[in-house]
């Protein structure tokens, strides 16, 4: 596949940080535009509702970032979140912790199935996680019997989605902590370095004595756990476990990772710029809403996907991101 | 590729290992003959062939794309665009004034537009040296939005026997879309085996660098396969709206990219490119279709069928890889 000369680790910082600066500037420009143009754009209500809603995508995209850095892909995150939301909703009458643990366990289970298929059965990640996606989706629908499952309002479980801590939405705290953890994991731990080496050149990593299998298990189970957490927030935020939700989340997450500048070929990447990518894609919808509120134009909500697609196109053209590696 | 003798001791076993998809299809068929009530009937054949046709039509284009080592995530969205355009044309004042010309244009224009978008995919991927999964993600996101914006998200209901012939008509007692499917399979299989373009497709997927050195026009080959994929998606979009007597851009082709990819994978075309079997893709799609039918006909809930489908896709790809390694 890739040649030994194209080895990865030492050269990763520079391109990632330049691309990173660009997306941060793009986000800043978008926020400045919104703040100058719309009255309540930076108001607490708008900021917190954007954060509360996008926290779920932030979590699935974080897991996706690590998977993509190994050169893999995880198509199952949306279905996993839906499955986990059902499990969490079923366990919510027993309290916050059982609901949370159930959702996480459901996510970890899907992640483990993915990792097994990729690592032991040696199936390409695209197909393996496609299978994982179908199995997770089917399991969620089976448990929920094709209906949404009401969450118990008698316990503290709903706080995970609807609550605030120090005035800031709880899901935003959860996402913030997750990204802090992800950043430390990537930049300061041996596991982070291993993830990048496996993605940079799997064969070389294997020859250096790295356990590629262990890295694979790590990133896919982690992605499952984070998608499970997103499912817990989904159930708590909307008061129901939703087995049919999550369609297209995986591709949204991949888009966020790409916008954030992480290479799909693996071996390079940054965690915090993925968060910026999520916010950018999320803000497009928000700004469209405000623009319609101004009354000058009337763009239907359908325009948001057109604009998101165009935005992704601009990002791909502008940055050296996601280009195929030169051999 | 070549039909080498794998094992003198157990030729039947070796054969089964070489064509696991065919064996699986035969086993499923035998199971149905023995256990599924009313299996041997004209209606069963019709239901299954009608349902599988759209997936196979899309999967033919997808097989060619995957043979070049690429992937096309945009097919479902292109189906939505084609499906939205056709009724707009034959229900327009012009289409009502000139019914014959209106219907003719309703076939030609949407397919041509989908082909043009497919060409855009190929152009974008080769011009900017983008990974196919990212390049086609743009139209996956934006394409459905374009279809929704064109129709303002509204359902278009219609009754137009001339146009709906493509989804409801019969020739020699067989559904028209089944004949289209068979024609496309035959054309693509012939092209891959007998034409220069077919060899170029496999050369690009097998070893792009070597193909370049051998003078294969890589960019042109890729642009052409993505164009073909767009065209087949456009045809499938027309079939779907013709069957439904209505077009809903929110739903037409939703999730089709993954169904088509699954059919290609189960059929035995490897994702690494350089090898392709269009007939295998047909068999792969038939397996997935017949499996679902078998489960539903025997009282298994749809959700459980989804889980089994995931497991079967993983199992099929796993067994093929083993077969290939053994060969």
Protein architecture, described:
- The complex is a heterodimer of chains A (327) and B (327).
- Chain A has 327 residues and is an all-alpha fold.
- Chain A has a single domain, classed as ABC transporter involved in vitamin B12 uptake, BtuC.
- Chain A is 70% helix and 2% strand.
- Chain A is built from 13 helices and four strands.
- Chain A has helices spanning 13-37, 44-69, 77-91, 96-119, 125-144, 159-162, 170-188, 190-200, 202-207, 212-238, 249-259, 271-294, 303-318, and strands at residues 149-150, 164-165, 168-169, 240-241.
- In chain A, the strands form two sheets. Chain A has a two-stranded antiparallel sheet.
- In chain A, helix 2 packs antiparallel against helix 12 and helix 12 (271-294) packs across helix 13.
- The relative contact order of chain A is 0.21.
- Mean pLDDT of chain A is 86; it is low at 1-16 and 321-327.
- Chain B is an all-alpha fold and 327 residues long.
- Chain B has one domain (40-326): ABC transporter involved in vitamin B12 uptake, BtuC, CATH 1.10.3470.
- In chain B, the strands form two sheets. Chain B has a two-stranded antiparallel sheet with strand order 1-4. In chain B, strands 2-3 form a two-stranded antiparallel ribbon.
- In chain B, helix 4 runs parallel beside helix 7 (132-151) and helix 6 packs antiparallel against helix 12 (218-244).
- Chain B is globular and about 65 Å long.
- At the A-B interface, helix 5, helix 11 and helix 13 of A face helix 7, helix 13 and helix 15 of B.
């Amino acid at each position: 596949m890739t040649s030994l000369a194209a080895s990865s680790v030492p050269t990763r910082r520079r391109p990632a940080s330049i691309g990173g600066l660009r997306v941060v500037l793009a986000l800043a420009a978008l926020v400045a535009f919104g703040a100058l143009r719309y009255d309540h754009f930076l108001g607490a209500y708008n900021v917190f509702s954007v954060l509360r809603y996008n926290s779920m995508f932030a979590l699935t995209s974080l897991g996706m970032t690590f998977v993509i850095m190994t050169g893999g892909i995880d198509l199952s995150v949306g279905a996993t979140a839906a499955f986990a939301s059902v499990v969490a909703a079923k366990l919510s009458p027993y309290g916050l912790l059982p609901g949370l643990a159930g959702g996480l366990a459901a996510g970890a289970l899907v992640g483990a199935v993915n990792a097994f298929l990729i690592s032991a059965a040696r199936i390409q990640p695209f197909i393996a996680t496609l299978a994982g996606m179908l199995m997770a989706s089917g399991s969620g629908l089976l448990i929920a019997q094709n209906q949404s499952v009401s969450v118990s309002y008698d316990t503290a479980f709903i706080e995970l989605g609807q609550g605030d801590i120090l005035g800031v939405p709880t899901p935003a705290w959860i996402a913030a902590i997750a990204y802090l953890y992800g950043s430390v994991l990537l930049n300061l731990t041996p596991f982070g370095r291993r993830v990048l080496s496996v993605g940079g050149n799997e064969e070389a990593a294997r020859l250096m004595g790295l356990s590629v299998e262990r890295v694979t298990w790590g990133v896919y189970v982690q992605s499952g756990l984070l998608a499970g957490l997103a499912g817990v927030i989904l159930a708590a935020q909307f008061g129901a476990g939703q087995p049919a939700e999550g369609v297209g989340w995986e591709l949204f997450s991949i888009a966020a990772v790409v916008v954030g500048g992480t290479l799909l070929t693996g071996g390079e990447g940054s965690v915090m710029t993925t968060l910026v990518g999520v916010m950018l894609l999320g803000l497009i919808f928000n700004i469209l809403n405000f623009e319609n509120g101004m009354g000058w134009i009337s763009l239907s909500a359908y325009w948001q996907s057109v604009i998101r697609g165009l935005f992704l196109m601009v990002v791909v053209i502008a940055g050296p991101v996601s280009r195929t590696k030169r051999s | 590729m070549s039909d080498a003798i794998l094992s003198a001791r157990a030729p039947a076993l070796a054969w089964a290992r070489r064509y696991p998809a065919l064996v699986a299809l035969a086993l499923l068929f035998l199971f149905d003959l023995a256990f599924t009530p009313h299996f041997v009937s004209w209606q069963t054949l019709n239901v299954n062939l009608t349902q599988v046709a759209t997936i196979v039509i899309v999967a033919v284009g997808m097989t060619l794309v995957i043979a070049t080592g690429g992937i096309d995530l945009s097919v479902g969205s292109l189906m939505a665009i084609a499906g939205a355009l056709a009724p707009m044309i034959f229900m327009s004042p012009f289409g009502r004034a000139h019914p014959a010309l209106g219907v003719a244009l309703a076939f030609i224009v949407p397919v041509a537009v989908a082909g043009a978008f497919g060409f855009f995919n190929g152009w974008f991927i080769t011009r900017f040296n983008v990974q196919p999964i990212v390049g086609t993600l743009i139209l996956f996101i934006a394409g459905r939005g374009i279809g929704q914006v064109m129709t303002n998200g509204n359902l278009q209901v219609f009754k137009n026997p001339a146009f709906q012939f493509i989804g409801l008509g019969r020739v020699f007692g067989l559904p028209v879309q089944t004949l289209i499917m068979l024609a496309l399979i035959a054309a693509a299989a012939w092209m891959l085996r007998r034409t220069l373009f077919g060899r170029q497709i496999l050369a690009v997927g097998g070893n792009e660098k070597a193909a370049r050195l051998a003078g294969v026009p890589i960019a042109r080959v890729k642009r052409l396969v993505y164009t073909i994929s767009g065209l087949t998606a456009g045809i499938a979009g027309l079939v779907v709206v013709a069957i439904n007597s209505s077009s809903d851009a929110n739903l037409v082709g939703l999730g089709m990219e993954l169904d088509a990819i699954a059919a290609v994978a189960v059929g035995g075309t490897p994702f690494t490119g350089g090898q392709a079997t269009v007939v295998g893709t047909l068999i792969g799609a038939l397996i997935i279709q017949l499996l679902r039918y078998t489960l539903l006909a025997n009282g298994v809930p749809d959700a459980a069928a989804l889980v089994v489908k995931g497991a079967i896709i993983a199992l099929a790809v796993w067994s093929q890889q083993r077969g290939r390694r053994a060969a």
